[in-house]
Amino acid sequence: MPLGKRELARIERRLITTLTDACETAKGEIKGFTWLTHTADLNALPETLKVTWVFETLAEKKLAQANAKARIFELTAIALNEAGVDWGPSDHTVRFDSEEECQRIHGGDWQKRLAQSRVTKGF
Q1: Rounded Cα–Cα distance for residues 51 and 41 (Å)
Q2: What are the average pLDDT values for consecutive 10-residue runs of the chain, which has 123 residues?
Q3: Number of domains into which the chain is organized
């Protein structure tokens, strides 16, 4: 049975709260990390959820992918679990990006960049 609007809104609020906690933790632990966001169609959450971890530079993003990926997946898993979302992070769910790349490719327009990422694979 599909979830109602109220339950979908509760899930969205819980995701925002738990991902904000993950973000604040990561700021103190992961060099170059600045913020994160998520996108999803709440009616098809498992298939559409994307959590984008944003770094200041491309170099910092690559360093995090090499050295902090496990911690980022762990923080994402904790957030999803606390929000009541029953699947773990994967390369499909967790994405890495940078302010530098957004500025270069999309002129700093994150809405455009995130919308485009829904129809293309990766960054």
Answers
A1: 13
A2: 79 94 97 95 84 97 97 95 83 94 96 76 39
A3: 1
